[in-house]
Amino acid sequence: MNNIIVGYLIGINILSMLFMYIEMRTDLIKLKPKIINLIYTIIAIIGGSVGILVTSQLFEYKREEKIIKRGIPFIIFVEVVVIGFFIYKFNA
């Protein structure tokens, strides 16, 4: 079960990094900034928050956006707390 969760998190973070890189470097995705930020938020909630944060720091992209600056670290904190709770609860 742990292997499935780790594989999912690695996969979703790689996809989030690719999505952000493609959106940043090309004109393939022509959406309004509000919709792009909503997509980033949804991806972060389903587990890709670390990938979004790392990509924004590596490529210095949208680091001043409120969702990247404050929202993504908060989502990471919540995810760590939830995962820690499940690990504690089911491994005790």
Description:
The protein has 92 residues and is mainly alpha-helical. The protein has one domain (2-91). It has three helices and no strands. It has helices spanning 2-25, 33-58, 66-91.
Short description:
This protein is an all-alpha fold and 92 residues long. It has one domain.
The low-confidence runs, each spanning 5 or more residues with pLDDT under 50, are none
Quaternary assembly: single chain
What is the number of beta strands? Answer: 0
Specify the biggest β-sheet.
none
Strand content: under 5%
Helicity level, as a percent range? over 70%
First-to-last CA distance: 16 Å
Average pLDDT for all residues: 84
Provide the succession of SSEs.
HHH
Count every helix, treating DSSP H or I runs of 4 or more residues as helices: 3
Question: Layout of SSEs?
Answer:
Elements: H1 2-25, H2 33-58, H3 66-91
Key phrases:
mainly alpha
